């Protein structure tokens, strides 16, 4: 199966109240769009297209090479954004997967299962749905008596009975590519002057096509980041995942909630990390090390059996078996660091 992934990242994100494009804001130490790009690449797509718009140059500077860019010059909705990406999909994919640059918690395993289900059911459209604790504000998945999806109703338009539905639309969609390309030009213009990608669901239902759904195993995976409160909540989830991965890999965290682990940190087994530790940038800690309390390590290598206590270190190598600290602040040269 040939797969094309389209990541929508053109929005301004006015609720962030920032001069920085929303998708560039860091979540747990890395721009949120890079979390989405990493997950998309884990699916090994034949093509990866990123739709940019607001402050496009700044988004491109963060994402870099290795993707194809499409420009959405005006914010005319998700359907319009995907239409701008269509000419840049130069292969002939079987499936088009649409993701969002402000949904940084989605897991590759969830998307693999989602794309596989789309193919297995030979669906025209497949929705990734979720069941939040509070569905207020989300579009509800409406089904008939046989359990088939018949539409998506936005919260503001829903009846009281429909608002009682717990299954909600995440916005993440998979399409049969030829059907998608043929129907995008026929999306209706909404009253606010936008074209909604979700209107394709109603089109597929009206044609008697197969519309399938997969429920996200963890509703937090599909929560979008729209303001600083949600940004902090998403960071907390990602930090928690990284801490759990270290502990399951044989690392002891004495007080896990106080250890901040960046996205490019590797720690060897039987290492102990005490409270109030920040590991940022490219950090490599070997086995049987001891990272004492109140340490900040940025772009640091700590070799096997070393001990670091109450130290702020940057661009340094701590030799095997060495003891550093307490009350040490040292910064080396980035040029002298080994390739990590």
3D architecture notes:
There is one protein chain. This protein is of the alpha/beta class. It folds into 2 domains: 220 residues, Alpha-Beta Complex (Spore Coat Polysaccharide Biosynthesis Protein SpsA, Chain A), CATH 3.90.550; 88 residues, Hexapeptide repeat proteins (UDP N-Acetylglucosamine Acyltransferase, domain 1, 3 Solenoid), CATH 2.160.10. The chain has 8 helices and 23 strands. β8 and β9 form a beta hairpin. It is elongated.
- Count of separate DSSP helical elements: 8
Taking the sheet with the most strands, its summary is: 7 strands, mixed
CATH topology of the largest domain: Spore Coat Polysaccharide Biosynthesis Protein SpsA, Chain A
Percent helix? 10-25%
Number of domains: 2
Estimated share of beta-strand residues: 25-35%
Show unreliable segments: none
Content-based structural category: alpha/beta
Oligomeric description of these chains: single chain
Rough shape?
elongated
Radius of gyration: 23 Å
CATH architecture of the largest domain: Alpha-Beta Complex
Fourth-level CATH superfamily of the largest domain: Spore Coat Polysaccharide Biosynthesis Protein SpsA, Chain A
Number of strands: 23
Overall mean pLDDT score? Answer: 94
Task: Give the distance, in angstroms, between the N- and C-terminal Cα atoms.
Answer: 35 Å
